[in-house]
Amino acid sequence: IGAICKRENPHDAVVFHPKHAGKTLSSLPEKSVIGTSSLRRAAQLKRKFPRLQFKDIRGNLNTRLKKLDDKEDFSALVLAAAGLRRMGWGSRIGQILSPVDCLYAVGQGALAVEVRAKDQEILEMVSVLHDEETVLRCITERAFMKHLEGGCSVPVAVSTLLKDGQLYLTGAVYSLDGSDALQETMQKNVNFSLENEDGPDDNLQHVGITARSVPRLAQEAAERLGQEVADLLLSKGAKQILSVARQLSS
């Protein structure tokens, strides 16, 4: 990854069937069916809204919206807010889910530029596209998932915030039905300057990201933060939760 642009809204959004316009998940009738293809979303929302039902839904965005609107099978869909807005469907968003309701996926809402790893000229060219806050948030999120050996086949979720030079990471793992959950929040100082560093290392990467315009010490701190939150969850039994989830989802 040679560049990561400024992040869009990373949160999940709810699109409601027209007959439920103006509602929220908490105000839907009991046993309303919510469509999502994400294990992460389903696990969290089952835990938060046990009176609702969650059903897998597949297809591209247009296909899913058609399934929602043309039939009575689903009361709502849960999708990435960034994806809806980029495809011109922002007006369909009926509710944005805060991290209290649903932590988001690693890197959600962030657009990356992929480059050949040793193409120094192109890496230098695209480095101006980096958004430092987004880079640091994505590094810590990716380090968290990598250290857990997570992926799309297990419910792993995050939320990050950069404020006053402090990077905050909330990381969580869930069982598929949401009955088991582990969540922790930690923070680390990332307030460093390029002025105090030697020239950029052409071969330096942090969890697959080359970011020459972002202070190396800040990147290292962000990566350590992700690893430390993962280690804390692993010490509390995250490996067992994810192992069972992986077996059940395969």
TrEMBL record:
Cited InterPro entries: HemC (IPR000860), Porphobilin_deaminase_cofac_BS (IPR022419), Porphobilin_deaminase_N (IPR022417), Porphobilinogen_deaminase_C (IPR022418), Porphobilinogen_deaminase_C_sf (IPR036803)
Coiled coil: none
SUPFAM superfamilies referenced in this protein's UniProt entry, alphabetically: Periplasmic binding protein-like II, Porphobilinogen deaminase (hydroxymethylbilane synthase), C-terminal domain
Gene3D superfamilies in the cross-refs: Periplasmic binding protein-like II, Porphobilinogen deaminase, C-terminal domain
The EC number(s) this enzyme carries: 2.5.1.61
Residues in Porphobilinogen deaminase C-terminal domain copies: 136-190
Listed pathway(s): Porphyrin-containing compound metabolism; protoporphyrin-IX biosynthesis; coproporphyrinogen-III from 5-aminolevulinate: step 2/4
BP-aspect Gene Ontology terms: protoporphyrinogen IX biosynthetic process
A Pfam cross-reference name: Porphobil_deamC
UniProt keyword terms in alphabetical order: Porphyrin biosynthesis, Transferase
Gene Ontology terms for molecular function: hydroxymethylbilane synthase activity
Domain named Porphobilinogen deaminase N-terminal: residues: 1-123
Cofactor or coenzyme needed: dipyrromethane
GO cellular component: cytoplasm
Protein family according to the UniProt entry: Belongs to the HMBS family.
PANTHER family: PORPHOBILINOGEN DEAMINASE
Cited NCBIfam families: hemC
Protein name listed in UniProt: hydroxymethylbilane synthase
